[in-house]
Predict the 3D structure of the following.
Amino acid sequence: MSIDISQIVITIAVICIILWRISYGANVGLVAEAAGLIAVLATFASVYFIMGITENVLDKSFGGIIPKIGYLIVAFVVYRVMTGIGESLRKMKEVPVLGSFNRILGAVLGVIEAIAILYLVEYITGIKLLTVLQAAWLGLFGKIKGLF
């Protein structure tokens, strides 16, 4: 199995994004990370509706634009509200028992959010980020397994 340089670069970028979200999730905790995840889902919705708006503009079907703009505004409001809630609940990490548990679950949720972000980038650009990462990891584990 040969791996070219573009696969290595994509794999490094994907790993950096995943480590960034794990670190951020462990730092802010579960509640703030959950708010961030809901914000990412609102971003998914906004991208979906933006794609529909541009399709209606290109087809000159302006009657379908108004409801989609409304949905886009709602997605943006949900994003802002959830990030605001996450910011306001950061004080929860100062409680000793809840703080540690909150950080661990925040890191787990950070991984989920990183995968969601990568899927969104895949959806928009068409570049297969997760597939390249999966192929690289399977190749690595296959070589490690071959050593034993």
